[in-house]
Automatic annotation (TrEMBL):
Molecular function (Gene Ontology), one example: RIG-I binding
Residue stretches making up the PRELI/MSF1 domain: 5-177
Gene: Sec14l1_0
Keyword Cytoplasm listed: yes
Signal peptide: none
Ranges for region Disordered: 190-239
Protein name: SEC14-like protein 1
InterPro entries named among the record's database cross-references: CRAL-TRIO_dom, CRAL-TRIO_dom_sf, CRAL/TRIO_N_dom, CRAL/TRIO_N_dom_sf, GOLD_dom, GOLD_dom_sf, PRELI/MSF1_dom, SEC14/CRAL-TRIO_domain
Species assigned in the record: Daphoenositta chrysoptera
Cellular localisation: Cytoplasm; Golgi apparatus
Domain GOLD: 523-676
Pfam families: CRAL_TRIO (PF00650), CRAL_TRIO_N (PF03765), PRELI (PF04707)
GO cellular component: cytosol; Golgi apparatus
Length: 717
């Protein structure tokens, strides 16, 4: 299989004139002790123009490739020969170098092109660039080995190239040579000198501020420091990347990584219509795919399309988060960590995720998270300038104090998963570290639900502390300066992050309102509604095969008061017959209403109650779970709750009388959702379910838990 490997270097800037660089470069021939594999070179061809401006020289170079002996034996060669053709133009001040392999040229094709040119903004500096391609057609079945050796040799020599020039520059300096005059045309021919003479002094270099050249900054940094932070840094010559800029703003990259970045960026410039992402963002996508340029290009293109569709580029300037978010979303930016990364603090345990989803819909929540990520990108850029080194990711501190079953509300978890998925796809490699603090015992459950959606690279950056462990050795102080540890974690720093708390029910929007906004919310798809009548409860059957599964439920009492029960039976109830409703078929105007428990069944003989009955009032939301002890059939039941007469007088209370006058008082309505989670998903964290409601109790108006089995049901008003 033919594989073509390509390499493109950044621009390397030498702060020396072209002529001096040429004097240094010439010293590499005929052999160079600094490149051990460069054994010898012979001149094959040479041409000089009459005025000495053009000098073309072709050499045959003998290389001793550092390859395994076995491979050399198979190939039957000790040395590899390359042809190198150098074209020097002293008038234009350029050197172009073309090289290709002579040995194995029918099996392997190697082409390299290098150039030394004058820096466009300073005629006393020199730019160097190189590109190459390697195409292995066949090599005795060792194609991939040869490719690896060739790439390794090549990239290690790239690093050496700069050292060699610098070594010979130093040697020249020691010999007292610090200036080489420029080429001037022979005086004999007048006409030529007059035309080409004015070329020399004319140059844009004069624009460069005096101070800048002294400090030896390159053009890009001068423009950067003077421009306002919001402007993108000015591009290098011809919008190429230069090596110093990469080191300063993007970090230490290997030659191949630099090459991938340059090639992907070039491809975007040529093909992409819209706004081209910043270099550090392109680099994130490459890192996310281990610098596989094709895979990175694919995810980057998908992300660019997504950004355009959702107008993400404008989100910070044009979108104002709804007040509910500003009041109840318990997260915010807070200084930076010890590495200079922006720090985001999220008090997840204090946040009413369910309330937020019900009040806002999932879209607004997602949009908010996107705006947080966009702000994160902006802060990384800012910190890169402030700290003088590349900072491309942020640190997230998540405080789980208060986490409980309410956070396991499935629509909430599903919304969270979708948000994680969108963020993973469009903001890869932005999370530098995730510190999870005060993890309660219920945490493993949530973690199991969420972790499959998180990329392996990302997962390695998670640190999880239970209880107050974060205060001990290896804790928070290793990552965050003492001065900025937030007050709610026992630090001295006032933290502006909102406290969170329960979103008032009055802010919830009905399914209809959310529908009108064209925002499809989970509630319509995963909730079912049921009607409950006096004498006709609604029942749902759940069959459990594996004992110690977990049945979870989540329901809202939309109308009326009900009693919620959960029963177990060893035998299957008969499927409800049409006429089993009997008289009720008149009273139930449709509505989902199913009875499963046979009238002849007796409690305690045919079926048993596994939870204490729970009375739920109109407008309440209830969540809970039951760890099943036995296989068999479980029945969840919502039953009409009839008010007892007032105990003291035995006379009906006024509101009871009024209630009975309303025809609909015999009908209740619930919206419910149930799910069974296999025990293996809980990884032995059963006990966590028992205690899970405790942390939220100060937020929740009423919390009930029955100790009779491992269960907790939460009610929030």
């Amino acid at each position: 299989a033919a594989m073509v490997q390509k390499y493109q270097s950044p621009v390397r800037v030498y702060k020396h004139p072209f002529e001096l660089i040429m004097a240094a470069y010439e010293r590499r021939f005929p052999t160079c002790p600094l490149i051990p594999m460069f054994v010898a070179s012979d001149t094959v061809n040479e041409y000089k123009s009459e005025d000495q401006a053009i000098h073309v020289i072709e050499r045959r170079c003998k290389l001793d490739i550092d390859a395994p002996r076995l491979l050399k034996k198979i190939a039957g060669v000790d040395y590899v020969y390359f042809v190198q053709k150098n074209s020097l133009n002293r008038r234009e001040r350029t050197l172009h170098i073309e090289a290709y392999n002579e040995t194995f040229s029918n099996r392997v094709i190697i082409n390299e092109h290098c150039s030394y040119t004058v820096h466009p903004d300073n005629e006393d500096w020199t730019c160097f660039e190189q590109s190459a391609s390697l195409d292995i057609k066949s090599f005795f079945g060792f194609e991939s080995t040869v490719e690896k050796i060739a790439m390794k040799q090549y990239t290690s020599n790239i690093k050496k190239g700069k050292e060699i020039i610098e070594y010979y520059l130093k040697q020249l300096e020691e010999e007292g040579i610090t200036f080489v005059p420029r080429w001037t045309p022979p005086v004999a021919c007048k006409s030529e000198s007059s035309t080409s003479h004015p070329r020399r002094p004319v140059s844009p270099a004069i624009n460069i501020p005096e101070s800048a050249t002294k400090e030896g900054l390159n053009n890009k940094e001068i423009l950067n420091t003077s421009s306002s932070p919001s402007e993108p840094p000015a591009g290098t010559p011809d919008d190429k990347l230069d090596a110093d800029y990469i080191k300063r703003y993007l970090g230490d990259l290997t030659p191949m990584q630099e090459s991938c970045l340059i090639r992907l960026r070039q491809w975007l410039q040529e093909t992409h219509k819209g706004k081209i992402p910043k270099d550090e963002h392109i680099l994130r996508f490459l890192r996310a795919r281990d610098f596989n340029i094709d895979k990175a290009r694919e995810i980057l293109c998908q992300s660019l399309t997504w950004r355009k569709q959702h107008q993400v580029d404008y989100i910070l300037d044009t979108w104002n988060p709804p007040q509910v978010l500003q009041d109840y979303y318990a997260g915010g930016w807070h200084h930076h960590d010890k590495d200079g990364r922006p720090l985001y603090v999220l008090r997840l345990g204090q946040m009413d995720t369910k309330g937020l989803v019900r009040a806002l819909g999932e879209e607004a929540l997602l949009r908010y998270v996107l705006s947080i990520n966009e702000e994160g990108l902006r802060r990384c850029e800012e910190n890169t300038k402030v700290f003088g080194r590349p900072i491309s990711s942020w640190t997230c501190l998540v405080d789980l104090e208060g986490l409980n079953m309410r956070h396991l509300w499935r629509p909430g978890v599903k919304a969270l998963l979708r948000i994680i998925e969108v963020v993973e796809a469009n903001y890869p490699e932005t999370l530098g570290r995730l510190l999870i603090l005060r993890a309660p015992r219920v945490f493993p459950v949530l973690w199991t639900l969420v972790s499959p959606f998180i990329d392996d690279n990302t997962r390695k950056k998670f640190l999880i502390y239970a209880g107050n462990d974060y205060q001990g050795p290896g804790g928070l102080l290793d990552y965050i300066d003492k001065e900025i540890i937030p007050d709610f974690l026992g630090g001295e720093c006032m933290c502006e992050v909102p406290e969170g708390g329960l979103v008032p029910k009055s802010l919830y929007r009905t399914a209809e309102e959310l529908e009108n906004e064209d925002i499809k919310l989970w509630t319509e798809t995963i909730y079912q509604s049921a009607s409950v009548f006096k004498g006709a409860p609604h029942e749902v059957l759940i069959q459990i095969v594996d004992a110690s599964s977990v049945i979870t439920w989540d329901f809202d009492v939309c109308k009326g008061d009900i009693v919620f029960n959960i029963f177990h039976s060893k035998r299957a109830p008969q499927p409800p017959k049409k006429d089993s409703l009997g008289a009720h078929s008149i009273t139930s105007p449709g509505g989902n209403n199913v009875q499963l428990i046979d009238k002849v069944w007796q409690l305690g003989r045919d079926y048993s109650m596994v939870e204490s009955p729970l009375i739920c009032k109109e407008g309440e939301s209830v969540q809970g779970s039951h760890v099943t002890r036995w296989p068999g059939f479980y029945i969840l039941q919502w039953k009409f709750h009839s008010m007892p007469a007032c105990a003291t007088t035995n006379l009906p209370r006024v509101d009871d009388v009024l209630a009975s006058l309303q025809v609909s008082s015999h009908k209740c309505k619930v919206m419910y959702y149930t799910e069974v989670i296999g025990s293996e998903d809980f990884r032995g964290s059963m006990t966590s379910l028992e205690s899970s409601h405790s942390g939220f109790s100060q937020l929740s108006a009423a919390t009930t838990s029955s100790s009779q089995s491992h269960s907790s049901s939460m009610i929030s008003r």
